[in-house]
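Table S4 entry, 3-isopropylmalate dehydrogenase.
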Amino acid sequence: MSRKILVLPGDGIGPEITREAVKVLEACQQQGLDIVIEEGLVGGAGYDAHGEPLPTATLERAKASDAILLGAVGGPKWDRLEDLTKRPEKGLLGLRKHLGLFGNLRPAILYPQLAEASSLKPEVVSGLDIMIVRELTGGIYFGQPRGIEERDGERVGFNTYVYSESEIERIGRVAFEMARKRGKKLCSVDKANVLEVTILWREVMERLALEYPDVELSHMYVDNAAMQLVRAPKQFDVIVTGNMFGDILSDAAAMLTGSIGMLPSASLNESGQGMYEPCHGSAPDIAGQNLANPLATILSVAMMLRYSLDQPELAARIEGAVGKVLDDGLRTADIAYPGTRRVTTAEMGDAVLTAFRRV
Ligand SMILES: NC(=O)c1ccc[n+]([C@@H]2O[C@H](COP(=O)([O-])OP(=O)(O)OC[C@H]3O[C@@H](n4cnc5c(N)ncnc54)[C@H](O)[C@@H]3O)[C@@H](O)[C@H]2O)c1
Ligand SMILES: CC(C)[C@H](C(=O)O)[C@@H](O)C(=O)O
Ligand SMILES: [Mg+2]
């Protein structure tokens, strides 16, 4: 039975980078991977076509898919929409919630060839290999009540940062299992010196640790963690944290790898269905210029092959092909430096495809 892959290019650079990633996915198909690839609309593209950032047809097709590859959503064109529920980002958040994609994996790995592209000294980042495990369907992103309303003659904005024990335990288990397979070190990041919700977070992580005696659990306040990621990032193996902190720390970790254009991600539910996307956004400032780095999206396909399609060998071949292209000195603008060869989005994608076919 063919596995169904739904590609959602989205907005901005989304179509450019997913086009390159689909080339690699199609190469896997040509080499025998039994998949069917379809395309759909989400985000601003969905809103422009159907008046909704998550059209009903897209959601139904996503539910029926084994895996989803998403480019990016959002852009200035839709930032001033009066109805906040129509904003492109609501399409992405809707997919996460409706599909129950609570477990977000954001690996920050420095390819040795990119040590010079990092904003940090090579000795600080060389050998970097961190996995950020982010809770993705709870916390302040989805908490109620939320909104903006009139109170005592002025407008008041409010959101609710909420987690249940079961939500914390669910993401905690993903993180402990991940740490068990890696360096057996897990750092839980919270703000328990201020926020009661993260006092509970910390208590649940402590209770889980009793079931994983082989994993060393530590705790860190999020402000310190942001600083430590820049000061000494190699102290970390696996980081587990909530929705908002994970969003912020993963972008910070991006610069350790040389560019946000290098960071893939996997968002998984309890049945193993996954949505795969680069951690970055739609990059409206460079959209349509064939400048965007497609490697985060191509590496997201590798994660798809590993986590949803049970094809670790194909995943390793894609990761090897990315390494080969970097060895050959090809660089998109975001990771270029003297002595490397500047290439466009499409040229980078074609180079990875050629290297993949040769591996
Ligand atoms: N998962 C998503 O769809 C997602 C994630 C983050 C932001 N967004 C949306 O994207 C829009 C722009 O947000 P932003 O500017 O804050 O973040 P962004 O990640 O789109 O861009 C931040 C900076 O990184 C650069 N950049 C991003 N991806 C790149 C790539 N692949 N190659 C080279 N450079 C790259 C951009 O040019 C920009 O200078 C907003 O509408 C935001 O809501 C979407
Ligand atoms: C676009 C936005 C809703 C999203 C998030 O905050 O999760 C993005 O920043 C990300 O990192 O995927
Ligand atoms: Mg983000």
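The longest helix spans residues 14-30.
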